[in-house]
Structures
1.
Amino acid sequence: QVQLVESGGGLVQAGGSLRLACAASGRTFSINAMAWYRQAPGKDREFVARIFWNPGITYYADSVKGRFTISRDNAKNTAYLQMNSLKPEDTAVYYCALQPTAWGSYDYWGQGTQVTVSS
């Protein structure tokens, strides 16, 4: 079993920055990719960013491209989401997810961390 623990959420003014972290732990597991999703009140969960663990290829939703950066620390099994130039519409609960193998799905999810951007 894999556990994902997110941290780094909070309240920030528009134009500010936050850095989220997602640490994966468990007895034995592999990581093909990790991703960040978010869910705003009354809306469906949406994709934000993805990183393939090796060699670190990244993908972003158009809404965050150029403002958010996903990265990883292989040694710590941790993914990060650096969020700059935050907008009120970025307000949501942010979830990280882990895909163990290339042929599988995102089987493991974190508990979510709240990000609130005030105008």
2.
Amino acid sequence: QVQLVESGGGLVQAGGSLRLSCAASGLAFSNYVMGWFRQAPGKEREFVAAMKRLTSYAGDVKGRFTISRDNAKNTVFLQMNSLTPEDTAVYYCAAGFSATLNLMNVYVWGQGTQVTVSA
């Protein structure tokens, strides 16, 4: 059974940092592009970052967020710095095959973890 389990969400003040983790099981982890998406209340789910060997980021998180992965531990991380209230959302881990990971080509989703940034 393929499963992605996120952790590390929580409440943080503006300007603070959080590190999300996503543990994968049931798949050949190193073969997949791993990514993060987020969905704020009343908004569509959107791409945040992705990585296989190279990394890609959404424009509004570039320079603040860093995606990394540990293939030996089947885990992908999202380090989020300089957080703002606009980063408040449920953050979802995702796995797929395409270098340009998007809502249409994600193979499996995690259940999501809430990130709340207070002003």
3.
Amino acid sequence: QVQLVESGGGLVQPGGSLRLSCTAFGLTFSNYAIHWFRQAPGQQRELVAGITSGGSINSRVAMTGRFTISRDNAKNTVHLQLNSLKPDDTAVYYCNAGIGSTIEGPYWGQGTQVTVSS
């Protein structure tokens, strides 16, 4: 059974940083792209960042320079580093797994809440 588990969310002040993690179970991790999405209350889901199975940043994703994404295949984990956070970054962040460079694959995590507030 495939499972994606996000962690690292929380409450942070504007200008602060968080590192989110997405750990995968039950799949051959190195074969999968991992993409991060977020959804704020009353808003549509938004694509935030992505990294392909080969470890390349997905150039089809318009990722802000405040965020960086990396993967550690030995730990079946992708990290999303969020810097210079703004209140508009407040949302539930979800990771998704899809084969190769697929942006929206069949597997989703449960989400982790990021709240940016003073």
4.
Amino acid sequence: QVQLVESGGGLVQPGGSLRLSCAASGSSISASTMAWYRQAPGKQRELVAKIISDHSTVYADAVKGRFTISRDNAKNTAYLQMNSLKPEDTGVYYCRRIEPWGTNSWGQGTQVTVSS
């Protein structure tokens, strides 16, 4: 059974940094696309960044230049380094794993709050 567990969220001041981790179990992530989404209160869940199996990346315009997605297949883990955080980055951040054949799974989410 595929499981994803996010960690690393918390409260940070504007301009600060956080690093989120998404640990996968059940099978290797090496062929999977790994993605981070976020959902702010009262808003739809949106894509933040994704990293393909070949390590190519895609970012939402709102986070380009501030966030970096990465993966360590040996540790079966994906990461999201978030720098220069803004209050509008506040939300629940979810990890998503997408298999080449189309099935996908989600983590339970981790709260990120950017506030002074």
